Structure formats: C-alpha cells, structure tokens
Task: structure prediction
Amino acid sequence: MLSPVVTPFDSALRPDRARFTRHCQWLLEQGVGLAVFGTNSEGNSLSVAEKIALLEALREAGLPPARMMPGTGCCALTDSIELTRHAVGLGCAGVLMLPPFYYKGVSDDGLFRSYAEIIERIADRNLRIYLYHIPPVSQVPISLALIERLLRVYPGTIAGIKDSSGDWSNTQAMLERFQPQGFDVFAGSETFLLATLRGGGAGCITATGNVNPRPIAQLFEQWRDADADARQAALDRVRAAFQAFPMIAALKAAIAHHATDPQWATVRPPLFELSGAQQEALLRSLAGLGFSMPGLA
Amino acid sequence: MLSPVVTPFDSALRPDRARFTRHCQWLLEQGVGLAVFGTNSEGNSLSVAEKIALLEALREAGLPPARMMPGTGCCALTDSIELTRHAVGLGCAGVLMLPPFYYKGVSDDGLFRSYAEIIERIADRNLRIYLYHIPPVSQVPISLALIERLLRVYPGTIAGIKDSSGDWSNTQAMLERFQPQGFDVFAGSETFLLATLRGGGAGCITATGNVNPRPIAQLFEQWRDADADARQAALDRVRAAFQAFPMIAALKAAIAHHATDPQWATVRPPLFELSGAQQEALLRSLAGLGFSMPGLA
Result:
C-alpha cells in the first residue's frame, strides 16, 4: 500500500522540503509507503534537480528508503537514468517508471529499448522497476506483450506494475499472467484494492492514500476479514467525494484544511487550485462522511 | 521558414555536437532558420543540460542567434524557465514553447498561468514566445481564447504560433483574428505553406525543411510567382514520400544516405530506426522524384 505523495509548494512555487518531509512521516505512521513523484505528486512538473533535492530531504530526515518507490520515468532518457540512479543509490525499494510520454503511438520495440537502455546503463542488481501504466494521462500504454518481453529479458529487475488504466479486465489479465511469476500488480486506485488482493495482487498505489491512509492501509492488512466489503464501500465513498473535483487540487485542499495550513493548497501550473466554492463543497461532502485526518501535523 | 532541426546522436546515444552544428550550417546556407529542439528534433528526449550544450555548440561555431527559435517548453515549470532564460541570453530570435504536456484536460486558466509565470520570472523585454499548438502529439491544445488572453496581457512577448494541428480551419481562424495584430502564424507543415502565405501568415516550420530546405525556402521567397501552385505540388510529393514512414527516422535515414554517414540514422528511444526494407522503399520513392540534398556535408 503506497501513495503518490502530494508535493507542497511555498509561495514562490518552490517544492517545500519541510512540509514534504512532515507529510511523508505522517503517511509512514499511518502504514502507507511513499510513491513520491507520481502523477498526483505533480512529479513531472518538477525538474530532476528538484526531485533529487526532495529525496535528499527524506534521507536527511532519516526516513526509510525501503518504504520508497519514487517515480523516475521522464521523457528524456538521460533524465530517467539520472533520477533512477539516484534512487537506487539511496536504497529505495523500487522505482515507478513511466514510459517516455511525449511521442504517441510508439512501438513496443521502442518502449522495450527505452527500458532496456535504462536498465543496462544503471547496471545495478538492486534496481527494481515497477512499470507505470496510466494511458488516460501518459497516452502511452504498456501492453501485455511488452511486459512479457521485459520479464523474459530482465526477470530480476522488472518487479511489477501500477495499473492506472481504470480497466479491471487489464488488471485481471496481468494478475493471471504475471503475478504468479512474482511480478507485483498494484491497482492504481483503492477502488480496486479488494478485488486486486482477492486476485492475488500486491495492493494499490493510490492518490487518496494521501488523505485517507489509515482506512486504506487497514483494508490492505485485514482484507480477509468478514467486513472487508463494507470497508471497501466506505473507502469508495471517500474516494468519490474527492473524485468529484480535480483530484490533486482536492487532495491539497483537504490537507490545507485539516492541517490548518492554507499554503498546502498551492499547485504548480498547469494545474489550478479549487475555487472557494469547490473547496466548500468538498469539505461539506467529506464532513458528511465523518472524514478526518487524525494525527496530521 | 524554419525547420525543427533533427538531432544527431553518436553510438552511445549522446547528442553529437559536430554533426549538429554542420547540419545547422547547411540549413542556414539553404535559407532555412533553426527551430532546434522541436518535436522532430527529439527535443523532449533530451535533458535541459543536453539542450543547453547544443545551443552552446552553435554559439561557439558562430551561428547567428537571430536565426534560432529553440523549443523550450517542458513539463516542469523550472525546466522551461531555465532553458528559455538561456535562449534569451544567447539572443535567440524567439522560443517555440509547448504548454506543459503531462496532464491532459487542463484548463485555460492553468495554461495561462503557466505561460504567465514563465514570462514574469524571465522578465526580459527581448523574450519572444511562439506558442506551439500540436494536439496530435502534446494532447494539450492551445485554444483561440487562450491566445486572445495571452496577447491582451503580454502583447510584446507573445509573438506568434506554430500550428501543427493539421486542421486548416484552425490556422485560418488564427490568421484572421491574430495575424493582423502582428501575431505570426506559422503552419506546421509546408503542405500549408502557400495557403498560409496567401492568408497573410508568416510561413512554416516544417520537419521536411531538414531534407528539402531549398525548394521550400524558394516557395516561401517567391510565393507570388505564377508557378507557385506547381512548386507547392512538388513540395507535397516529397513530403508524402517521407510521411509514408515514421517521420523522424525517415528524415535521419535520408540524411544518413545523402551524407554517406550511417551514424546519422540513429534515433533515441522510444523512437526506432527504419528497417532496411523501409529505408530502401523510402530511398527508391525519393529517387523517383529526383530528390537530392545538394551541398550536404
């Protein structure tokens, strides 16, 4: 169970290391791992140097790299290599790697070569790559055929996938074909958490883990309990409240409110903060669900 | 008339400064300006540092910045600022700026804020931004309403657009609404060169400028001549020969062949070189059109 950690910005839109570290600590306390620099982290809105500085902040604060899976897939081969090498050097459990996403309609040959170049150049047996399949955003899907080929050539390194396609039949196909080989399938939303675990999968990496971490982690830990379906339904209601708004701005608005720290609401362009009315509607809807963020600093 | 200059790579996939500079020199001799780091340049497959090093190579070789319009729009605000600042510092005529392209379905408010942040932070009266509208690839369109708003707030800085939508009605709308205000409309392909010039536009920025520069520049210079339609038809035939294949690989294959320099064919992942059969078919089809690249080093 991991969350793409939202990235706080200061009033000059610089990544805020202190708020970031505090939020990461809180997530770990709730039982949630740190998939920093994901889609919901505005990871691609940060330069490689900014991402490395944030990783260094976590290291200096003594947070455990074994609980980290930074997003390191960039458009430029050299950027992906630099960032991935840094993450491996820190001892991160793995990296979550988008395919290069500027060109659309690229071939599996081209995507294979992209991952292969990165793996060969990093040449570190501690490298664990989790593929990141998020066609609604990247517009560059990772096909089952590509996974099969990568697993055949780099069995120790290709460690799993985050499936953010929203297409359960795709998740199911990967659970059946690849999970038995030790390839960890993570759903891209807690909406599919119970189904993924029942299908033998590894869990989920989910945006709302930023705001609702403990209940999601609890279902992950106790999914065989009798009340699992009811717990899943409760998670789905919170998720739906956030999904009624642009997700990243909504996550940050909720944190800003519950931490009494308005600066947390800031997003980097091209994203935009919730309007006052949207924010009120979100908080009202969350209050109606009895939502809270206990222990948030 | 400019071309998104293709970027040569050495056998380790590093940008090759010497080949790059030579190709830029040849393009200038043919009457074509340098829109380096465009889509056909694999610009987004290069890190910011690699792009700055290539700009420095052109500067050291004494090429005129007044003929340069580097692509500087990245996903990360800080990357776009760093690269744009460098281009302005070099004295480049302008920059061709993609919107941040990772998130899809972003609002005009968010895109406006993205361009505004860059303009305000660079704060240089020599900054000239040409917007880059290429929805088939970026998947993030630049609407007429956004152009209008940017022009109203930053009239001296927002200098024009490259329209690679392939949708002539969109180009036409921009020619009618914005070109009269001195906002330069460039077609994204020489296929629309004559129509754009007849509509009062500024010309085109086109991939095939890399391989067929002189005939394209000649139509640009003599578009009022009686034989303009016949020249346009001849350009279209060469364009079609390249478009039958993945464009970037095809451009590089043609240069590799005509420069007798196989290394030129290399592309960076996620792209892939033409197969031997594709390369033969391309060269055969070009030979049938009497195609040549005179003066290519």
Q: What stands out?
A: The first strand of chain A starts at residue 2 and ends at 3. The radius of gyration of chain A is 18 Å. Chain A touches chain B through 39 residues (CB under 8 Å). The beta strands of chain A are 2-3, 33-34, 95-97, 129-133, 158-163, 184-187, 203-204.
